């Protein structure tokens, strides 16, 4: 019971860190290319994970499992982020956030279809409630003022990124039951960093951009949140169903809206408070264990 609650807390932490990182990303998005920002983000995140965070325990991966985990890392970070960046070139941020917030629902559907998880009406209703809270927030008049213009290829990239996030969350399960979460995190993220390094070199993107102190502070925060958040993500995936863990991604847009309200020194609008209530109610329903009879 205690482990389950800790896993839920870890998953919630990830959702909130994602929202905070969204705000920091918006601060530096005009000063650094998407590929360079992704490389720096996960370079710092990998450095955090490589710190001696406990007793030295040597983990030996089989060659087959090491290749699989490295591949999942590349897709979880590099491919997903690159798809999202491509989508943001032609699709509004409102639509991107709304579609990506459906990842918990996609994860649950895929998990049920593939037999990874049993069908749960309570869980489905909870996830739908959380997604509805995000939709309510993002489709409010203030959020949709920027418009929703997009083209076909941008939407294809966006939907593909959402599916990549859902599929990788499910596929991590067997490896997290065989290997420690920290060792798995390190292998996956370092693999993504190597991939992004090659991508930046191939596309002639700068590896060390010229930024001011505030921008560097935001980049460092994004990287730290990625390292800590990804460890919490995999740790929770090793103890909870993938659909429950990804459900907490719905906290991201709401957290971002709350932080932006604080930074602008204005009270959070009623739409944010209503959305937060809907998201929290949905998450409680989705993660609550059924009572024993």
TrEMBL record:
InterPro entries found in the cross-reference section: AA-Vitamin_Transporters, EamA_dom, EmrE-like
Protein name: EamA domain-containing protein
Major site of localization recorded for this protein: membrane
Pfam families assigned to the protein according to its UniProt record, in alphabetical order: EamA
Residues in EamA domain copies: 7-138, 153-285
Transmembrane segments: 35-54, 66-84, 90-113, 120-139, 151-175, 187-208, 214-238, 245-263, 269-287
Presence of the UniProt keyword Magnesium in the record: no
Keyword Metal-binding: no
Compartmental location: Membrane
Keywords assigned by UniProt, alphabetized: Membrane, Transmembrane, Transmembrane helix
Domain of life: Bacteria
Topology of the protein relative to the lipid bilayer: Multi-pass membrane protein
């Amino acid at each position: 019971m205690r482990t389950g609650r800790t896993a839920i807390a870890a998953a919630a932490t990830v959702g909130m860190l994602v929202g905070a990182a969204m705000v920091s990303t918006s601060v530096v998005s005009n000063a650094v290319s998407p590929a360079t920002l992704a490389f720096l983000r996960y370079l710092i995140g990998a450095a955090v994970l490589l710190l001696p965070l406990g007793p030295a325990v040597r983990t030996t991966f089989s060659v087959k499992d090491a290749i699989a985990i490295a591949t999942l890392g590349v897709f979880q970070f590099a491919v997903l982020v690159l798809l999202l960046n491509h989508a943001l070139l032609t699709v509004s941020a409102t639509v991107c956030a709304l579609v990506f917030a459906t990842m918990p629902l996609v994860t649950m559907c895929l998990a049920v279809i593939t037999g990874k998880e049993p069908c749960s009406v309570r869980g489905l209703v909870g996830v739908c409630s959380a997604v509805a809270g995000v939709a309510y927030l993002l489709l409010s008049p203030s959020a949709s003022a920027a418009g929703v213009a997009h083209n076909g290829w941008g939407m294809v990239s966006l939907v593909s990124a959402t599916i990549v996030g859902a599929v990788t969350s499910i596929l991590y399960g067997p490896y997290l039951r065989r290997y420690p979460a920290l060792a798995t995190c390190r292998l996956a993220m370092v693999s993504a960093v190597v991939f992004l390094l090659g991508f930046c070199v191939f596309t002639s993107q700068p590896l060390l951009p010229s930024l001011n102190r505030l921008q560097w502070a935001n980049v460092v925060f994004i990287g730290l949140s990625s390292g800590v958040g990804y460890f919490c993500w995999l740790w929770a995936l090793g103890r909870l169903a993938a659909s429950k863990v990804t459900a907490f991604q719905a906290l991201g847009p709401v957290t971002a809206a709350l932080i932006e309200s604080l930074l602008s020194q204005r009270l959070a609008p009623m739409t944010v408070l209503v959305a937060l209530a809907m998201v929290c109610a949905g998450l409680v329903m989705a993660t609550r264990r059924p009572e024993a009879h």
